[in-house]
């Protein structure tokens, strides 16, 4: 991912990994650890690319609480008050 962004030429260089914020502990654990678990056998091979990127240091997975997840209004049906509170943080 770093190489792709550097090739775009928009950002001169990326010294630190790209951070992906996630509110799912299971997804973070799957990305960081390569242990096989009986619940993970259904994961498609293409999703193991993220684990490779994390192990190379190109990507870093960080936890964000569901209350502070600003992507929720884009991916879930939310109450109007929740959307307004997130909007106020960005304005």
- The total beta strand count reads 2
Report strand order across the widest sheet. 1-2
**Radius of gyration, in angstroms, nearest whole number:** 16 Å
Structural class: alpha+beta
> Looking at the structure, what is the overall shape?
flat
Q: State the separation between the terminal residues, measured CA to CA.
A: 29 Å
The amount of helix comes to: 40-55%
The average pLDDT score comes to 73
Question: How much β-strand is present in the residues?
Answer: 5-15%
Low-confidence stretches: none
**What oligomeric state best describes the polypeptide chains here?**
single chain
What's the order of the H and E elements? HEHHEHH
Total number of domains: 1
Number of helices: 5
Main pleated-sheet profile: 2 strands, parallel
Give a description of the structure.
With 91 residues, the chain is α+β, with helices and mostly antiparallel strands. The chain has one domain (2-65). 43% of the residues lie in helices and 11% in strands. The chain contains five helices and two strands. The protein has helices at residues 2-8, 25-32, 48-56, 72-75, 80-90; strands at 18-22, 59-63. It has a two-stranded parallel sheet. It is flat and about 40 Å long. The mean pLDDT is 73.
